[in-house]
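Colleagues,

Please find the record for the two-part complex below.
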Amino acid sequence: MSRTAPSGPPPSAAAAPVAPAPRGLLAALGSTDHKRIGAGMFTTAFGFFLAAGVLALLMRAELMEPGMQVVGVERYDQLFTLHGSTMFYLFATPIALAAGVWLVPLQIGAGRLLWARAALCGWWLLIAGGLAMWLGFLTEQGAADVGWYSYFPLADMPNSPGVGTDYWIVGVLLAATAGIVVAACLLATIVRLRAPGMTMLRLPVFTWTEVVTCLMVLTAFPALVVAMALLLAQRRLGGVLSLGSGSIDYQHLFWFFGHPVVYVVFFPFLGAVAEAIATFSGRRWFGYRPFVVSLLAFTALSMSVWGHHMFTTGAVDNRYFALTSTALLVPAGIEYFDALATMWRGAVRFNTAMLFALGFLVLFAIGGVTGIWVAAPPLDYHVTDSYFVVAHFHYTLFGGSVMGLFCAIYLWWPKVTGTLLSERLGRWQFALTFVGMNVTFFPLFFLGFDGMARRVADYPAGTGWETLNTLSTVGSWLLGLAIVLFLLNVAGALLRREPAGADPWGGHTLEWATSSPPPPEGFTAPLPPVRSHAPLLDLREARADGRPVAGPLAPEAAR
Amino acid sequence: MSRPAVVFCVWALFLAILLAVLWTIFDWDTLSLVLAGAATAGTLVLALLAAGFGRGRAARPARPLSYASVGIALALSCVLMGLVVGAWLWLVGCGLFALAVAGLVRERRT
């Protein structure tokens, strides 16, 4: 990290001044500014998160006690299908990419997104996909009720005749295409528009997590597109998946996407947590290079574990997929070690973003450890299709992605809006989320281990499952309350408009070098020199030591 | 490992190692190998593209507004929904697509 880089605006920004941003709603909906596209995608995805959350509350209300009280059996099937589908296809994946669309061009000093028109198109494909998926609720036979995986032959026309399933397939196709398009734009931006001095080994940690996320999207999502196209053809024409081993082939295609997507919706938030831990510990991220290698290894492994979702089919070699799934512990361990070592002897500030980062570490650890259980075929045979699996993946997805998402929101909200969220409300939200998360999902481990099947609307009385189910439902109310607090916090911040300043936290990366919110062109002042993945920290340290803050450009630094 | 193409190659290498382990040591089925092989090959194609693109030779920034891009997304959505809803929506989608492409060409010229 001894090479020096020039100060000055990025070449793309210097060569092509950007016109003043058009104003108004129509302008926001058709803008090619990466910040508007990112914010639009983020808001759209968060809207779907709220909608899917309402479905979850309805499901938990139904399961509070034995018997059918709230919805019918068919409607319950539609609820869990749309809950899972919305969370994966319309919320978690798009919001992970949206954060990248907003932040990455600033973190790499580009100030703009390459192929911004395509990214704008991707946002609208996402909106259309979401509407198509939810349109099923307006049809006579209701929305899709085949689960977010829509296994064949369950999802074939004779078994699921409603047109809602067709709309759902089209929605998934559109949302998957949106993901591929946006990931391509992000990756191309990182390849072509990095500022002088910003070599790949000087990319901020968050940007690195977006790099590996985009690689996974570009290599895994096409399998989903193929699977959905085959399923639609099977439903409309027949004779596609019903030939030979179609049902197993479909599962291969689906899970080749279905496992990497778990990491697609996880890694960007791991990046956000890493940025928050480094910033609020006042220390450089520990073990940057091993972290980068572990990210590459982790994501490559995640492309090779899909068969553990098919242990009970008997159609895959369980030994291979058990080995690769268990091996995930190694890169995950490196990342945890880096996080703890960054905090070690740091001047840790426990504000809301940091609390969510710590919550992420604790809850994801539970999800990870129970992941090792289900990576072992004998244990997986016992708990497959039970609430144990539901608990496990909610600890990874809610404990990981959603805690990480709120960490990201509290960290970058001042940069995006130029205002400050209330720390007091934020802490209450964190406490409710942390407690609510554990009260909702921890009992499900016991219920699943005891044999309570998932995707079933009812359970028999007298099994001893009533108390744990009631507890879980109460937990879901706490989570709902936490989200209400967050929405109040957002509304309050937008009404108060307390100025945040350009860099309220003492950030390490280039987005904190511009105003809050940034101007359309991203940067107006010359960029600081880029000598590491934390250029602003370098600058502060150099100033504190009385060293010169800029140096001559070494030829290799310009690559 | 400072260039994106090298990074993509490293990732492809990891994928190739995992593919080789499956192929040589364990029982495999054709589709598993095809999927893992396609991901590896796809990543190598990305590496080639990244090596060809280089850095800093990007096209000029897009115009601040692009309703034609929105039109393309809506047209694609209509075409796909038309497969389920009926030929009329499919045809509307095709028409909208033609209009949006024309708009895109006009945007790029001005």
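The CA atoms of residues 57 and 108 of chain B lie 18 Å apart.

Comments are welcome before we finalize the supplementary table.
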